[in-house]
Amino acid sequence: MGAAASRDDLVPALAEVFREHGFEGASLALIGARLGLGKGSLYHHFPGGKEEMAARVLEAIEAWFEAEMFRPLREDPDPARAVRAMLAASDAYFRSGRRVCLVGAFALGAVRDRFARRIDAYFAAWRDALADALTRAGAEPAASRDLAEDAVTAIQGALVTASALQDPELFGRTLRRLGARLEAAMKPAA
Amino acid sequence: MGAAASRDDLVPALAEVFREHGFEGASLALIGARLGLGKGSLYHHFPGGKEEMAARVLEAIEAWFEAEMFRPLREDPDPARAVRAMLAASDAYFRSGRRVCLVGAFALGAVRDRFARRIDAYFAAWRDALADALTRAGAEPAASRDLAEDAVTAIQGALVTASALQDPELFGRTLRRLGARLEAAMKPAA
DNA sequence: CCGGGCCTGTACCGATCGGTACAGAGATTC
DNA sequence: GAATCTCTGTACCGATCGGTACAGGCCCGG
């Protein structure tokens, strides 16, 4: 379908193709068709081929999360607000469960090893940034780490089951449950 | 490596290959090598090709979960015990987070649509059986449904993040947190 | 000893895979 | 206006894809 109008839209469009078809399933023919580019152009912009395309996509995703979620979690003077913003940003980014997490999908597949460092870094940064915010919001450090792990896990799981059951609302319900758990932990005292 | 000794070991061995490489990544050459069979034998046992292989694998998985987890959840006269047994069975089946859920991996990929009914049925049966057990254990029906959805989601998410972070212990920690939440709900009164 | 299943390996098929080579279009620069 | 540089489409490469055809090995009942 639609050609990518601008060059800067190339990576997001690539991300969408990888999200929908996975790394192995996204053939160069398919990518070219979706981006409106022939192989010549593809290899001009990404001399490293598919591997570089995927690497650039992972890079862009990590940069987006870092700027929009992880940094606020670490630096916002109001950590509770940053936590709530994270949940809202998750709902927006994953299109309320209609979109899949590319990094999570890569983690389950055979490509995991090829991009191990980036995949690991993405989840570790998310977990650590959230734990930091929870601690700053008054939770015990140990409890914060536990809860942060729980939160990232719940979001990933919700993307899996929402996709499996074709039930996008499941994602919203999970975020609500998760929000309640996070709020409870952030209250300075029970 | 090792050839599958008996014919009955074919499907479990197939499942392992699909788990490790995904549907698209599991080529017939790879499958043949892992099962110690040539294409002739492969197509003799599975005339429908890869599609039938995957279908038989999903069938076998669903049958195992039905017998070992879902039915006990629905029928065990001691539902609380069945819930605890489910957590233990999950830990065993997924090798404490070292193994991935094939159904979940399929759900995230492009193959989802091809096996939509089976994937949907697997997760729906799990959720509904667990909700049934929780209700029988004294929880409110609405809370049971919520908690059951939460549990299946948490387990799937833990498999994603454990694989991503190469941290199998994350799976056990998630099961412990989940167990605590389930136990709390099963107490007849707070 | 022999005929006929069941099961197997192998050669082969057209299609598609990721990747390369290259010639030319279009704009820009002097 | 000629040279240059960026970007593009297309033809082509060997390898591999899923799948088919088929001949023969094995083992059985007769």
Of all chain pairs, the largest interface belongs to:
A-B, 41 and 41 residues
Number of helices of chain A: 9
**Assembly state of the chains shown:** homodimer
Shape of chain A: elongated
User: Can you give the helix content of chain A as a percent range?
Assistant: over 70%
Organism (chains A, B): Methylobacterium gregans
Domain HTH tetR-type (chains A, B): 4-64
Protein name (chains A, B): HTH-type transcriptional regulator YxaF
DNA-binding region (chains A, B): 27-46
Can you characterise this structure?
Two copies of one chain form a homodimer. With 190 residues, the first copy, chain A, is mainly alpha-helical. The first copy, chain A, has a domain at 57-186. Chain A is built from nine helices and no strands. Chain A has helices spanning 10-25, 28-35, 39-45, 50-75, 79-93, 102-108, 116-136, 141-165, 169-186. In chain A, helix 1 crosses helix 4, helix 4 packs parallel to helix 7 (116-136) and helix 7 packs across helix 8 (141-165). Chain A is elongated and about 60 Å long. In chain A, 42% of the residues are buried. The A-B interface holds A 20-22, 24-25, 100, 103-105, 107-110, 112, 116, 119-120, 122-124, 146, 149-150, 152-161, 163-166, 170, 173-174, 177 and B 20-22, 24-25, 100, 103-105, 107-110, 112, 116, 119-120, 122-124, 146, 149-150, 152-161, 163-166, 170, 173-174, 177. The structure holds a DNA duplex (30 and 30 nucleotides).
